[in-house]
Amino acid sequence: MTAMRIAISGTHRVGKSSLIEALAARLPGYRVVEEPYAVLEEEGYEFSDPPTSEDFEVQLRRSIEMVGDAPRDALVDRCPLDFVAYLRALDDEYEVDVEALRDAMEAFDLVVVVSIESPDRIVVSASEDRTLRRDVDGQMRAILLDDALDIGVEAFEVTGGLDARVEQVHRAMR
Q1: Tell me: the pLDDT tens digits for 77-108?
Q2: 3.30.160.270, 3.40.50.300, 3.40.50.720, 3.30.360.10: which CATH number matches 5-172?
Q3: 32, 25 Cβ separation under 8 angstroms
């Protein structure tokens, strides 16, 4: 199987990390690239609680930087468009640098979208901002699946349980 740079995208608490772990177990030699939030936190960046637009802008910039550093055989936890979805959910007038995003997204061979399913497969705690989660999911679908920003992204959505999602990604890699 050819090495690929694969982005796993979606709002929070949809099963991205579980999917990445399962794919990494099935794809020996693939490196997992942590999401910018974890990298920034390790570097000492202090996020607001709840995160602000500024926090998402910092993650967007880091995500764009990280894409160029990702190896060819990588499972990337979030792509730059994830953060655009958060920013657009918080402010639907958020201005997007389409060219920078287009350049960054060209680095990916495959973009996988993990959406909220009905019924929701993930237990979401009462402390979670469910409205933001749903809004981001809607933005994610529009930006990644419908290419609403005209970036030229070709993404596909996985559905079902973890094993089904892994198999869908594996088939798309062929």
Answers
A1: 999 999 999 999 999 899 999 999 999 999 99
A2: 3.40.50.300
A3: no
